[in-house]
Structures are given as C-alpha cells and as structure tokens.
Specification:
- The chain is an alpha/beta fold and about 375 residues long.
- The chain starts with a helix and ends in a 14-residue tail after the last strand.
- The model has no long low-confidence stretch (mean pLDDT about 95).
- It binds zinc ion (2 copies).
Length: about 375
C-alpha cells in the first residue's frame, strides 16, 4: 500500500510537469509528430495519474489540484494580454536626405522551426512559423553597412558552445551564409564599411566568423554583455578574430526614443537604443530615396503581432530570452506608437519573413 501511495503521489506531481514541458517544446519547436505526440502522451499521463490517485486515496486526488493550478498558470502566460495602448506620438517624421544610390537588400541565411506561441502572447502552439534568420545589407555611397549576419556556414559546430536545453529547444535549418551570398553576387567586400548588430545573440552573429575583416559596431552595453552575459552568449563569446567597435548615442531624441546615432549624418541610417531583449539592443531606422522607410527592430519582438497586437513574449520565453522584460515592454510600446502614427513605415522584426517582403534579395 505504501509503495502504491508513493507512486500515486509522484504521478500527481510529475504528470502536470510533463504537460508543461510538452507545451514548452511544442511552442519552441513548432507542431510536429514529436511535439504534438509528446503533448498527447503528457495529457494521457495527467488523466491517468489523477484517476490512479483518486483510486488509491481520494484526498490525493484533491491534492493533485495544486500542481494542476500551477500548470494552468504556466499555460495562461501563453494567452493574449495586449499591453496598454501607447500615448499618441505627436512628433513629425525626422528629416532625411538619403543619397542617390542608397539601397537595401535582404540576405536570408536560414530559419528556425517554431510556433506563433513562441513569438507572442496569444499566438497558437499549432500555428507553425518559420522564424527567418535574415541579415540586411544597406548600400550607401559612403560605405555599406550590414545589419546582423544571421546563420553562418559553421553554425552546426558553433552551437556546441550553447547550453544543452537551448539546443534541445531549437530546430534550425541553414541556407547560405551572408559571406556565401556576397561572393555569389560578386559583391566587392571593400565596399562593406561595417557590420551593425541589432544585438549579439547567436543567430545574429554566427556569420561574423566569415566576415572578420570588417569592424563590428556594438553599444558599450552590448560589448559588456558579450563578455559576461552568461551561458546564452556562449556562441558569441567563442567567436575568434571579431573586431568590435563601440559607438555612442550622441544625437537627440528620435521618434520617441531618448537619443540616437546618425551613422552618416544624413538621416539615412539612424540607430536608437532599445535595451531589454539584451542590455545593448538597438533599433535601426532606414530612410531610402523615394521616401521609403524601415525600422529594423531586431528581436524587440519576434513576430509582427508583437507590435500590431502589442503582445510581449510568453513568460517562459521572456524569462529565458530577455535580459529585462520590463524594458522590452517600454520599447515595444514606443515602436507600437510609431507604427500607429506612421503606417507607411515598415516594421521589420529580425525573425518575421513578412517584414522583409518589400526588401529585395541581393542577386
Ligand atoms: Zn535575440
Ligand atoms: Zn534573434
């Protein structure tokens, strides 16, 4: 009897945990036979364990309500909960004089297979989304700037520097690296002035390994985070030969952000601080000839709904992936205000293919 009691008590505790883990994987790796099958097994475990507990001792069945309540709390953090609407933005679009010849291109380097639930609260775990890993090349007569690098040629071996739980939750697929695409397009690498990082997470810096002859611009906060940001920065820390250069936000407020850095002084490439996802995350505003404007928001949100529906990442994801979730909320609200005031400005989250739709590929 004693052993039956112990088994029943253990089942009551661990079965809801199994559903929690299954949900975590279903959201992080997207719906597949593995994740949906795992979820069904976990649900069967929970039902079975409660039935078993009630049969062994009715009180134990009641006790199972506590872990189930915790599970419900965990799952509810995936439900939609829009942030309060921002105060309307009253400023005008900052002036810009982008030079003729300036142009922007996208360089897709691969995808991770995820679900919408991974990207924003209210997204479905059964809505499969391929999160793109796309770099952006900004051609400018005074020197081209590459924003992020996506997945490099050696991503498979580079990932060994990442924690096991991170690798277990990440199902990636590489296409061509930035360096490979530049070479295929017969791009003159001397024209590449610098690489500007939205932030230094693994999926934005992997390609740096093949571009070590170009300086990499980061904020001082991000430079420090690379050095002491913990296990999640393992891949970045292990990169060899990268020449980091830091810059400051010497310019005034920009579209609701407190300060700015105008790369060439013409308003064409303007960087603003948007800390939260990482301590030194930035948003890059581009103004192109013909009045086309973009906001490359990096990983402030992973999917456009983050801005359009003002939904932050679910609790498990932001706890593991965001350095300061409250700061993410502030900056998300800022960008939501910009999107509402200037619908003609295209918001481009680093991992949402829909944001890149109007940006041509480099052929
Ligand atoms: Zn990131
Ligand atoms: Zn990312």
């Amino acid at each position: 009897m004693r052993s039956r009691l112990l088994v029943a008590a253990a089942a009551v505790l661990f079965a809801p945990l199994a559903i929690g883990i299954a949900a975590l994987f279903l959201a992080a790796r997207g719906p597949s036979v593995l994740t949906v099958g795992g979820g069904l097994v976990a649900v069967a475990l929970v039902v079975g364990s409660i039935v078993h507990a009630v049969r062994v001792r009715r009180a134990l069945g009641l006790l199972s309500l506590a872990p189930l309540a915790l599970l419900a709390l965990f799952l509810s953090s995936y439900c939609g909960a829009p942030l309060p609407p921002p105060a309307p933005l009253t400023v005008a679009l900052p002036p810009a004089t982008p030079p003729p010849g300036m142009a922007v291109f996208q360089l897709p380097t691969g995808v991770t297979h995820r679900s919408a639930a991974f990207g924003y609260r209210g997204g479905s775990m059964f809505d499969a989304r391929d999160f793109v890993m796309t770099a952006v090349l900004v051609k400018h007569p005074r020197g081209d700037v590459l924003v992020d690098t996506g997945l490099g040629r050696d991503i498979g071996t580079q990932l060994a520097a990442m924690p096991w739980w991170f690798r277990a939750m990440t199902d990636w697929e590489r296409s061509r690296s930035v360096a490979e695409q530049l070479e295929a397009a017969h791009y003159d690498r001397h024209a590449l002035h610098a690489i500007l990082l939205t932030h230094a997470h693994w999926d934005h810096v992997s390609g740096l390994a093949e571009l070590t002859d170009t300086p990499v611009w980061v904020t001082p906060e991000e430079r420090a985070f690379i050095a002491d940001g913990g296990a999640i920065m393992g891949l970045t820390r292990d990169l060899v030969g990268v020449r980091y250069e830091t810059y400051a936000f010497e310019g005034g407020p920009y579209l609701g952000f407190p300060s700015s850095h105008d790369v060439y002084g013409d308003g064409a490439i303007v960087v603003v601080p948007a800390p939260g996802h990482t301590p030194g995350s930035v948003v890059v505003f581009l103004a192109l000839p013909g009045a086309k404007r973009y906001a490359l928001v990096g990983d402030l949100v992973w999917q456009l709904e983050g801005i359009t529906e003002r939904e932050e990442r679910p609790w498990p994801v932001r706890s593991l992936g965001d350095a300061d979730p409250a700061a993410v909320r502030d900056n998300l609200t800022r960008v939501a205000a910009i999107a509402a005031r200037f619908p003609e400005l295209t918001i481009v989250p680093a991992h949402d293919g829909r944001g890149f739709a109007t940006i041509p590929r480099l052929e």
